[in-house]
Amino acid sequence: MFLLTLLATVSLADVDVHSAPQLSTDVIVQKLMAANAERSQSLRGYRGKRVYHLDYHGIFGSHDAGLQVEATYTAPDHKDFKVISQTGSKILINHVLLKLLSSEQEAQEEQNRKELEISPKNYNFVLAGTEHTPQGDFYVLSVSPKGKSKYLYRGKLWVDARDFAMARMQGEPAKNPSVWVSHTQIEYRWAKIGGFWLPSHNASETDVRMGGRAVLTIDYSDYQITGVNRPSAHTSGENSTLPNPAAVTPDPH
Asked: pTM of the entire structure?
């Protein structure tokens, strides 16, 4: 039995077991991995904008900070960030938000990407049910890490039943990203844009050991696809891995 600490749980009343074709957990995971491998070869590049906002309340007072960033992705493993504007606490900007960008670039290294992959090598999977929504049908998978790597999560994944792409994740890092952090809850969402599934929103709440809470949101917009290997109506890119927890978790110290 897997112990999962979640932002939110899916109750049986919310699960429609007849909303999508009935597949075993292994088949869903195999289809997800196969589709991810194809997508990662299809998307060769994109540009987009991001808005980071961080609120901290605790023993160091109340502070907030924001960044507007232009992000450029070039396959297979290169990301560049250009800061367009910044507001609020310089300490939070320099010691938290800018470090999140560095952490995301670090996660692109080949060895780190392998640790981030959604695969049986890194995770145990259990099918919790299916959901039928106006946005489509989703397989809901409970996931628990097979190790204590800082790159892994425990929680739930929502897999689009048509494209076999990750559409949503709720959970917590398998290992605290910082000694200052006592607990972190994360929600990550992807959206299908121009035929590609790309990050759309991230929200995380971090409890600090010495007291206080940090709330981080990241909103993604204005995507421009700059490179595609071949046309496909159902391709998606850059979602074969979950985000590096350190790249989506604020450490306010």
From this structure: 0.83
Q: Return the exposure string of 25-44: e unless at least 16 CB atoms fall within 10 Å of the residue's CB, then b.
A: eeebbebbbebbebbbebbb
Q: Which residue has the tokens 């959206």?
A: 191
- Domain segments of the chain as ranges: 16-247
Q: Span 223-249, mean pLDDT?
A: 68
Q: What is the tens place of the pLDDT at every residue in 136-148?
A: 999 999 999 998 7
The three-state (H, E, C) secondary structure of 72-104, written as one string: EEECCCEEEEEEEEEEECHHHHHHHHHHHHHHH
pLDDT tens digit sequence for 18-40: 457 899 999 999 999 998 888 88
Q: Residue 214 in contact with residue 89, Cβ under 8 Å?
A: no
Q: What CATH number has the domain spanning 16-247?
A: 2.50.20
Grouping H, G, I as helix, E, B as strand and the rest as coil, residue 215 is strand
The upper half-sphere exposure of residue 200, i.e. CA atoms within 13 Å in the direction of its Cβ, equals: 11
Q: Is 17 exposed, middle or buried (0-12, 13-18, 19+ CB in 10 A)?
A: exposed
Contact status, residue 127 vs residue 143, Cβ threshold 8 Å: no
